């Protein structure tokens, strides 16, 4: 951890415009007119002037061009194993989200489940997100899949929470899955109760390495397969010794038995220190079959698709020997989940719908799970662990609309169930409302019940229409045409994931978005502030969706009181020997100090998750980058006045104290570039501090406040050191720091996280219009690091390379290589530790197409000259919304909407060639061209068209 063409119509006064160019203009203008943008805190106006000209595509025609592309980009599954559905990072199955509720597709053969989490359903004891529960649809008759162990009652000698014995027989087998994990020690056993006597002639044990490559040391080595008719007297039927295989698959003489036990005497291979010193039994899945040999009997035809175009999931599956089609969606602005089930069979089928509380396969025993019935409504409620801090409660309430013979629901433990009949050719709807979350809610089950009772077939139809419209509006905010299916297959799903998981007024998404499927998410599923929590938002500003970052800003601002206290009282923990020497009181008088990991809900006790600093003081700086980007791209004065500028001043104040002033008036900054390191003039700290001070000075001038602070900040800014460099392989490259102390004193670490380039992005201290020499050093650094596939670098290195003009085709090739190797079935980019932050790499593609640097907008700065591309409504600094197209190496037009007025500076994309500038009415607009930069004094709300003559 740590540190994504049509003919151009004639318009008035443009008689010399070619038809081709006129039509491209009309397409973009029609698109812009179709979308009304609103950024919180400041109105963003649609372009003024006449709506259209002859031959201009209508808004529906514009959408008709984009929609097929989005519809063609989808996740597809043909196996009911749902690999990666339940795991401690971001799931790999189909996902839905509305910024508050997250829905993960799962289940097993003949069983369709959806696991429900909520962005604000966080335990406070300790702080971490958790799933609420889920809903399931299945046939009432057992599915004929041949696996007798599926759903058996499982018990074990011991467990490691939350990897309960039931996880070994739940059918959730797939990539990355961990089933039953015992406590440390040997021997261990796991017992299955099949419910009645059955004939067993084959057993399959899927060991740890089968799902988690790289863990062969934890494969079961020695065990016996035992049977019993009473659960107490055991007969050894088969013995396994010296096994190294990932899957143990044995055919035995058929035996009649109700109970099965694996008695594991050597649970590991004893080939690594961990497997030797900490032996645990790890069984991913147990399968039993009545006949020996061959492979697992195939399931009925199955297909599931995730549709990013409208946020829905479609499933074709058989239950009770009847083919069914399902369509599942989550309302866009109401917490209602709907699964519509349609029978494609020739006779009625009886189905069971259930609503449950808890984590699949077992969970934290200190959480309380319950279920109940309210008339035809089933409800399930979950409460997080009690303790000194808050308790969160979340609830689901479900009812069946349509179908026939809907039986009164019943309750068993934390699950409520009902049975209904679905006639041939008809449709029924399982409707689920989700409520609760946050700190100490009173009665979320009542809220969920009331919410679902208010729904009927008519109202869910309205919600469905509103959902489709919401996603349409979301997609029409901006878009790219890259003429490259692989890049677009990353770009648009990445936009989907951030759009599904972040919404103004809601809790910010954690490390893995809002899709939590276990009570023990990795790194507490929290907000790691040394880049991970900020990275998902790197691309939202230029993608013209800046409002998606607002939940992050609220998260950081909510923690300010605690961060102020820590600056004064907790600073010593950053590095005791250094702090003791400089700050005997153990703190500084003012400013903010953030730990690495925090949770939601402000400075409430328990909201600090990873309460470490790792010798870093950069967490506030990383957070400040997002406040700065939001204002620079939106020019939202209210945001600057009430949120952005106040936070920046807090960060600046801390560093006024933290910096060392040298005798010659220059400053030195000590900190940790990497976690646990210590360096003089740490590169990311220096770069981000320059960004903060520049923004603070500008904000002070804009707001007319703190005039006395400006010279202080300017003096520091003027006397901060340059970004540190070193020489590697005969080339000057940017380093982590000037010098490093400790056990590893390297100032550059090739192959590692590109922390030494974070002054480029997110700090924006170097860009395509910067000094040519510095840009070359940066490009050489990218090559020297060679960190294209480094896990932490994915949201950074491609944007950093684009920002410094790295060779365009080579950059694309590097990106596509990683995408090819690490794209999951649901189109997210995987690695063992990270999740939603990968969406931030959309900024790399945007930066290849258009960049703002030193107040100048440059079109296609890092895009291959021979590769056609176009984009529309990408937002740039100064609140300029830009659309353009390039064909055969020539820019065809540039359309710019000025949201806030001000001066537009556009690098002339035609070199010394002639061009003209007109407004939406076709009237000529005055401009100047100092240094080859087209300079236009704009009016807020106006659109400007720049075309070659």
From TrEMBL:
Domain F5/8 type C: 136-291
Entry-linked InterPro entries: 6-hairpin_glycosidase_sf, 6hp_glycosidase-like_sf, AFCA-like_C, FA58C, Galactose-bd-like_sf, GH95_cat, Glyco_hydro_b
Cross-referenced Pfam families: F5_F8_type_C, Glyco_hydro_95_C, Glyco_hydro_95_cat
SUPFAM superfamilies for this protein: Galactose-binding domain-like (SSF49785), Six-hairpin glycosidases (SSF48208)
Designated name of the protein: F5/8 type C domain-containing protein
């Amino acid at each position: 951890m740590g540190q994504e063409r049509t003919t151009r119509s004639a318009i008035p006064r443009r008689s010399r415009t070619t038809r081709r160019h006129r039509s491209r203009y009309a397409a973009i203008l029609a698109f812009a007119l179709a979308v009304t943008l609103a950024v919180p805190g400041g109105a963003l106006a649609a372009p003024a002037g006449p709506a259209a000209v002859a031959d201009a595509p209508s808004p529906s025609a514009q959408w008709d061009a984009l929609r097929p592309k989005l519809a063609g980009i989808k996740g597809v599954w043909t196996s009911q194993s749902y690999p990666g559905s339940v795991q401690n990072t971001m799931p790999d199955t189909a996902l839905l989200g509305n910024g508050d509720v997250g829905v993960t597709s799962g289940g097993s053969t003949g069983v369709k489940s959806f696991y429900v989490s909520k962005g604000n359903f966080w335990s406070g004891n300790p702080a971490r997100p958790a799933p609420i529960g889920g809903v399931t649809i299945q046939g009432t008759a057992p599915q004929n899949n041949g696996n007798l162990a599926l759903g058996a009652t499982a018990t074990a000698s011991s467990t490691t929470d939350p990897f309960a014995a039931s996880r070994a027989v739940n059918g959730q087998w797939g990539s990355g899955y961990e089933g039953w994990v015992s406590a440390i020690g040997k021997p261990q056993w796991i017992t299955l109760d099949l419910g009645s006597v059955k004939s067993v002639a084959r057993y399959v044990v899927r060991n740890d390495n089968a799902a988690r490559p790289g863990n062969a040391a934890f494969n079961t080595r020695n065990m016996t397969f035992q049977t019993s008719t009473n659960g107490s007297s055991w007969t050894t039927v088969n013995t396994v010794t010296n096994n190294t295989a990932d899957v143990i698959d044995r055919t035995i003489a058929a035996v009649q038995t109700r109970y099965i036990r694996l008695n594991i005497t050597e649970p590991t291979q004893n080939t690594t220190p961990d497997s030797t010193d900490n032996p645990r039994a790890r069984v991913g899945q147990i399968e039993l079959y009545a006949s020996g040999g061959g492979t697992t009997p195939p399931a009925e035809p199955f297909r599931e698709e995730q549709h990013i175009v409208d946020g829905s999931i479609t499933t074709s599956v058989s239950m009770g020997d009847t083919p069914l089609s399902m369509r599942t969606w989550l309302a866009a602005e109401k917490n209602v989940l709907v699964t519509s089930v349609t029978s494609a069979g020739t006779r009625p089928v009886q189905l069971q719908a259930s609503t449950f509380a808890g984590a699949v396969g077992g969970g934290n025993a200190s959480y309380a799970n319950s279920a109940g019935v309210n008339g035809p409504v089933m409800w399930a409620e979950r409460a997080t662990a009690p303790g000194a801090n808050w308790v969160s409660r979340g609830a689901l309430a479900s009812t069946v609309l349509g179908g026939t013979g809907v039986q009164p629901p019943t309750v068993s433990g934390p699950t409520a169930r009902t049975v209904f009949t679905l006639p041939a050719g008809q449709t029924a709807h399982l409707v689920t409302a989700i409520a609760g979350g946050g700190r100490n809610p009173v009665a979320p089950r009542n809220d969920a019940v009331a919410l679902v009772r208010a729904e009927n077939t008519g109202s869910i139809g309205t919600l469905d229409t509103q959902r489709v419209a919401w996603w349409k509006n979301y997609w029409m905010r901006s878009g790219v045409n890259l003429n490259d299916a692989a890049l677009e297959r990353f770009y648009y799903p990445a936009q989907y994931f951030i759009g599904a998981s972040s919404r103004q007024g809601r809790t910010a998404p954690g490390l893995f978005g809002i899709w939590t499927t276990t009570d023990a998410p990795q790194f507490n599923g929290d907000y790691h502030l040394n880049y991970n929590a900020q990275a998902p938002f790197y691309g939202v500003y230029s993608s013209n969706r800046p409002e998606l970052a607002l939940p992050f800003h609220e998260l950081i601002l909510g923690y300010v009181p605690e961060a102020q206290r820590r600056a004064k009282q907790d600073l010593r923990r950053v590095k005791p020997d250094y702090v003791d020497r400089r700050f005997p009181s153990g703190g500084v008088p003012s400013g903010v100090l953030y730990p690495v990991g925090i949770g939601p809900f402000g400075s409430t006790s328990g909201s600090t998750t990873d309460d470490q600093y790792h010798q870093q003081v950069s967490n506030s700086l990383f957070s400040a980058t997002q406040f700065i980007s939001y204002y620079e791209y939106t020019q939202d004065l209210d945001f600057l006045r009430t949120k952005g500028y106040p936070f920046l001043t807090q960060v600046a104040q801390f560093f006024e104290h933290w910096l060392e002033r040298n005798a010659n008036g220059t400053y030195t900054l000590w900190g940790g570039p990497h976690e646990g390191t210590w360096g003089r003039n740490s590169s990311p700290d220096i770069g981000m501090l320059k960004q903060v001070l520049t923004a603070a000075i500008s904000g002070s001038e804009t707001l007319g406040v703190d005039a006395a602070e400006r010279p202080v900040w300017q003096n520091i800014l003027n006397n901060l050191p340059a970004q540190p460099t070193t020489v590697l392989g005969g080339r000057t490259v940017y380093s982590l720091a000037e010098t490093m102390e400790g056990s590893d004193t390297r100032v550059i670490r090739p192959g590692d996280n590109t922390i030494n380039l974070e002054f480029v992005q997110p700090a924006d201290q170097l860009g395509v219009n910067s000094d040519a020499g510095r840009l070359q050093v940066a490009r050489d650094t990218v090559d020297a690091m060679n960190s294209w596939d480094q896990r932490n670098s994915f949201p950074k290195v491609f944007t950093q390379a684009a920002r410094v003009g790295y060779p365009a085709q080579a950059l694309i090739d590097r990106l596509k290589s990683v995408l090819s190797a690490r794209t999951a079935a649901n189109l997210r980019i995987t690695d063992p530790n990270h999740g939603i932050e990968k969406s931030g790499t959309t900024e790399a593609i945007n930066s290849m197409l258009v960049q703002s640097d030193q107040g100048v907008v440059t079109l296609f700065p890092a895009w291959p000259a021979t590769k056609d591309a176009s984009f529309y409504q990408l937002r740039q600094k100064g609140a300029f919304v830009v659309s353009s197209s390039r064909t055969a190496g020539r820019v065809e037009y540039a359309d710019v909407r000025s949201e806030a007025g001000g001066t537009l500076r556009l690098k002339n994309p035609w070199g010394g060639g002639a061009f003209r500038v007109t407004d939406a009415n076709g009237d000529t607009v005055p401009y100047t061209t100092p240094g080859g930069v087209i300079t236009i004094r704009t009016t807020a709300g106006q659109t400007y068209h720049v075309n070659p003559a």
